[in-house]
Specification:
The structure is a homodimer. With about 210 residues, chain A is an alpha/beta fold. Chain A has 2 domains: about 5-70, Winged helix-like DNA-binding domain superfamily/Winged helix DNA-binding domain (Arc Repressor Mutant, subunit A); about 80-195, Rossmann fold, CATH 3.40.50. Chain A is about 40% helix and about 15% strand. Chain A is built from 8 helices and 8 strands; from the N terminus they run αβααβαβαββαβαββα. The first copy, chain A, has helices at about 5-20, 30-35, 40-50, 60-70, 90-95, 130-140, 155-160, 195-205; strands spanning about 25, 60, 80-85, 105-110, 125-130, 140-145, 165-170, 190. In chain A, the strands form 2 sheets. Chain A has a 6-stranded parallel β-sheet, sandwiched between helices. In chain A, strands 1-2 form a two-stranded antiparallel ribbon. In chain A, α5 links the parallel β3 and β4 (about 105-110). In chain A, α1 packs across α2 (about 30-35) and α2 (about 30-35) crosses α3. The longest helix of chain A has 19 residues, at about 5-20. Chain A is globular. In chain A, about 40% of the residues are buried.
C-alpha cells in the first residue's frame, strides 16, 4: 500500500465508522468517494486491488468493509497515546473527541508544572514526566504527542524514545528526526508545524502555482 | 521554487529571525542546516541557486539574508489571519505566540456562541459570523483558520470564500477542496487532519516501511 492509498483507506475506514454509528448498513462507492475527496472510480479500484467486492447494484456491506479495511490498517491492537506538555494545545487535544471513531485513545498527559496534577477538570490524569516509563508500560502506550514549548521538544522526544514510545506526533516548530535505536528500530515521527503551514498558505496566495 | 525548497527557505527565514532576536549578526550554512534539518551542502546550494553569496570563511550577514529571503517569500504585505470557531483548539491557536516571528498575525476570532463575545480573556476580539465580511475588509484578512465542529466546516469555508478570504487552513476532519471562483481564482486550502496523522503513525508503527 503506498501513502496515498493508505490515506484513502484510512478515510474510508473513518467514514464507514461514522455511517455505521448513524445506523446505515450499506454504502456505495459514491458515498465513500465524497467522504474521501476522490472519485468513485478510485474507490472501486482501491477495493478491487484489495480483493474487496460489492454486491451487484447493492453496494457494500459496511460491517464487512470495516473488518477488511480494519485488518489492512492493523486495527484491533492498542492505540493508546499520551500528551507531553499540557498547555493550551495539549489540553485542547485531550478534550478532542475526533480520535475515538478510529479507536485511538489519549490515556494520560505529562507536564512539568505541579499545579496541574491536582486539577481534575481534565478528561485524563496528568503526571509528572518522571513517571513516564511507568505509565507507558502500564497503559501500553505506543504514541506520544509533543505539545511542549520548543526549547523542551528535543528532551521530550528523547524521553519518549527511552521509555519505548516509538511513535511521535510533534507540534513544536522544532523538526524532530527519526533516529535508529540501538536495536535497529526506527521511530515514526510526524512533525506538524502549524506556523510553517500558515506561511506556505500566504506564500501560495502571493505566488500561485501555474 | 518547488515545495521542498519553499519549506526549507521558510525554515531558514524563521531561524534567521530567531538568531537575530538573540543578537547574532552572522550565520553559517551549518547553523541553518541544523535548524532546517538538512545538510549544509543543501543550504549552500539553495542560496547559490537564489544568487545569495556569503563572505569567504565569514558566513552570511543575517540582515542581508532576511531581506533576500523575505522578498522571495513575499514578506512585507499583510499576513493577517482570523479564526472561525473559538472552541479549545481555536482559542489555543489564538494564544499561540509562534506565528509572530514570521510576521503572521491573528487579528480576530468568530463564533456562533454569543456568550463568548463579552469574554475579554482572549488576546483578540471575537465576533459573530454575521460580521465576517466587514472585519475581513477592515483588517485586510487573507487567511482563515477553520476550527469549528465538523458539521459546520463546509459552511464556514463558503462564508470565507464569499468574504474574499482565499487562504484557508482547515483543522476539521472534513476535506475541503479548492474550488475555482467566478473570477477564475483558486483558493489555497491546507487540510490538517490530526486524527488522520495519528492513524498513519499507528499504521507505520505496525507496518514499517522497508
Amino acid at each position: 500500500m503506498n501513502t496515498d492509498q493508505l490515506i484513502r483507506i484510512t478515510r474510508y475506514y473513518r467514514s464507514l465508522n461514522r455511517l455505521k454509528t448513524i445506523g446505515l448498513e450499506k454504502v456505495f462507492a459514491n458515498n465513500l468517494a465524497d467522504a474521501a475527496g476522490v472519485s468513485a472510480a478510485i474507490v472501486r479500484k482501491d477495493f478491487s486491488q484489495l480483493s474487496i467486492y460489492g454486491q451487484k447494484r447493492g453496494g457494500y456491506q459496511i460491517a464487512d468493509l470495516l473488518v477488511s479495511l480494519g485488518q489492512l490498517l492493523g486495527k484491533g491492537d492498542s492505540q493508546n497515546c499520551i500528551i507531553i506538555g499540557c498547555g493550551r494545545i495539549g489540553k485542547a487535544l485531550m478534550h478532542y473527541t475526533g480520535f475515538e471513531p478510529d479507536g485511538i485513545r489519549i490515556v494520560a498527559g505529562f507536564d512539568s508544572d505541579p499545579a496541574i496534577f491536582n486539577d481534575t477538570t481534565h478528561p485524563v490524569p496528568i503526571y509528572p514526566i518522571s513517571r513516564l516509563d511507568e505509565v507507558v508500560k502500564n497503559l501500553d502506550v505506543s504514541v506520544g504527542i509533543i505539545t511542549v514549548p520548543e526549547q523542551a521538544a528535543s528532551d521530550s522526544y528523547e524521553r519518549l524514545l527511552k521509555a519505548g514510545v516509538m511513535g511521535v506526533m510533534n507540534f513544536t516548530p522544532i523538526t524532530l528526526k527519526p533516529v535508529a535505536q540501538e536495536d535497529g528500530s526506527l521511530p515514526v515521527v510526524h512533525n506538524i508545524n502549524i506556523a510553517l503551514e500558515l506561511e506556505q498558505i500566504f506564500y501560495e496566495l502571493k505566488f500561485p502555482k501555474q
